[in-house]
């Protein structure tokens, strides 16, 4: 009769004989999907109130949170505005870039693997 062993069981003591039919079973893998940071970049032209609106509208921030994050981007040049799965991050970046373009602001939003 064949034995199904996990890798961690390989060297476990075993009664009986005959490893002829031993089948190694790899440990079930449940790797979490990678996460992506969504970044907002500063520029000299996009109005502060527009950026605050973007952060409220697409990132669910309160007005106070959005204002604080906007100021961080304004002063430091860039800030992480959220961390998401690849698909959600891509959607957020697309929404922000689209919204900015439609309003003719040069606001830039990007994503990078965490
Ligand atoms: N620097 C812009 C200004 O002074 C404001 C701004 C903040 C622009 C954050 C983009 O991501 C940004 N009007």
UniProtKB/TrEMBL annotation:
InterPro entries: ClpS, ClpS_core, Ribosomal_bL12_C/ClpS-like. One of its GO terms (molecular function) is peptidase activity. GO terms for biological process: proteolysis. Residues 31-110 form the Adaptor protein ClpS core domain. It comes from the Bacteria. Residues 1-26 are annotated as: Disordered. Residues 7-17 have a biased composition (Basic and acidic residues). Keywords: Hydrolase, Protease. The keyword Protease applies. The keyword Chloroplast does not apply. Belongs to the ClpS family. Involved in the modulation of the specificity of the ClpAP-mediated ATP-dependent protein degradation. NCBIfam families: PRK00033.1-2, PRK00033.1-5. Binds to the N-terminal domain of the chaperone ClpA. This is ATP-dependent Clp protease adapter protein ClpS. It comes from Salipiger mangrovisoli. The gene is clpS.
